[in-house]
Structures are given as C-alpha cells and as structure tokens.
Amino acid sequence: MVAPDTYHVSPEPMLMIADLHGALALCLHDEGRGIGGLLHLRFMGGTGRPSDVTDNTLSSVLVVLDRFKRAVLGNAARADEVQARILAHALPPTDAGEPSASLVDLIRADLADGKIACGTQTTRRTEALRVCFQPFEGRVWICGPNDLRAAPRAHRSAG
After folding, report:
1. Residue 152 in contact with residue 15, Cβ under 8 Å?
2. What DSSP element (H or E) covers 63?
3. Are 100 and 52 in contact (CB under 8 A)?
4. Averaged pLDDT for residues 14-41
5. CA separation (Å) from 147 to 15, 16, 131?
6. Structural contact between residues 50 and 90, judged by C-beta atoms closer than 8 angstroms
7. Is 35 exposed, middle or buried (0-12, 13-18, 19+ CB in 10 A)?
8. pLDDT in tens, 90-146
C-alpha cells in the first residue's frame, strides 16, 4: 500500500496499491529499464476536491515529483520508452468554482516539459478509488476493494 504523500519504486514484478480519496496517483514506467513507480499525492486544502496550485504547493510538489522521476527514470531515460498515467479521485463538484490549474495540470505540464506523454483520468464520486499498478510491466488499473489480499508487500524506496 502506497501511503498518501509518498511513493514507491520497484523493478520487481509486484503489485502497488493506493487508495485515493481527494488525491491522485502518478504511475510512471520506464520500459527500457524495466522499472516503475507510483506517486500518491493528496489534493491541497483538505476539501477532497482539486484546489488552486499556490507557490508553496508548487515548490513542495515539484521537489517530490523530481525525486520520484529520478528514482524511476534515472538520469538518461528516453521519453519514447516512458509511460505515464495519472488517476485521480475527487469529490463531486459543488456550486463553487473549479480551479483554473490543479495538481493534475501541474504534473502533466512538468511531464510534458520532459517530452513524456501522460494520460489522465479523474473519477468524481464520494467513495474512494483503489488504483493498482504493476511497476515491472507498467500496467495500471482501477481495482476492487478485495484486490489487496493478493498484493505482495511494496518495498519502500523513498517518500
């Protein structure tokens, strides 16, 4: 289980799981090196909804994101061998306005700067969302609540 505001990286055939509630999971896989990782970040503000990205948020997220990318990609990854996917959970929208730039947008822009294409999917519901990721193969999916039973323990790399 990858806890909020941490990440795990592994070259092993294992299953990483993150329970998202007002949070996102960035799954990054370097096919050339056969390594992948999952970064689990909560949306700021504690509302369970995407919030505006402030300067403080920006600097702290970019530091963690940079460490995570280096752990997965090393120093010389080829962008054509890298797969990235963001799965996010947010509570249903309210009458309040949505932010113009969210954490998902920030991460996508950072990856685009490195020429890494990134697909995104945001699910809006009250129930949490469980994301499963196999870092060795780069396979990511939304899984059911009972899938944790078969999950090997994740090795803590950093966070």
Report:
1. yes
2. helix 55-73
3. yes
4. 94
5. 10, 11, 10
6. yes
7. buried
8. 888 776 666 666 788 889 999 999 899 999 998 888 888 999 999 999 999 998 766
For residues 142 and 25, give the distance between their C-alpha atoms in angstroms, rounded to a whole number: 11
Binned at pLDDT 50, 70 and 90, residue 17 comes out as very high
Beta bridge partners of 18: 131
pLDDT at 152: 45
Q: Report, in angstroms and rounded to the nearest whole number, the Rg of the chain calculated over CA atoms.
A: 15
**Token couple for 23:** 């949070």
The pTM (predicted TM-score) of the whole model is: 0.82
CA 98 to chain centre: 21
Walk me through the domains of the chain, giving residue ranges and CATH numbers: 6-150 (3.30.1330.200)
Nearest to 155 by CA among 83, 76, 90, 71: 71
